[in-house]
Amino acid sequence: PCGEGSKTWDRFQMRIHKRVVDLHSKSEIVKQITSISIEPGVDVEVTVADT
C-alpha cells in the first residue's frame, strides 16, 4: 500500500451454503418443481428414493 515493497497478503474465503428439502409427493409435482430455471453457478442435486 505505501509502495515500499512491504509484504501484503490477501485472504479469501469460499462459503458454501446448502439447503436440504425433503419432498413427499407425487412424481408429477416433483417434475414441476425441478423444471424451474436455475441461475448459472447454482448446483442442484436431486435424489429420488424408492419407498
TrEMBL record:
Question: Superkingdom of this entry's organism?
Answer: Eukaryota
Please name the taxonomic classification of the source.
Eukaryota, Metazoa, Spiralia, Gnathifera, Rotifera
- The molecule here is called Small ribosomal subunit protein uS10 domain-containing protein
For this record, an example GO cellular component is: ribosome
Asked whether the UniProt record includes Ribonucleoprotein among its keywords, one would answer yes
**Single GO MF annotation:** structural constituent of ribosome
Which BP terms in the Gene Ontology apply to this protein?
Answer: translation
Q: What PANTHER family does the annotation carry?
A: 30S RIBOSOMAL PROTEIN S10 FAMILY MEMBER (PTHR11700)
Task: Return the similarity comment.
Answer: Belongs to the universal ribosomal protein uS10 family.
Work out whether the entry's keyword set contains Ribosomal protein: yes
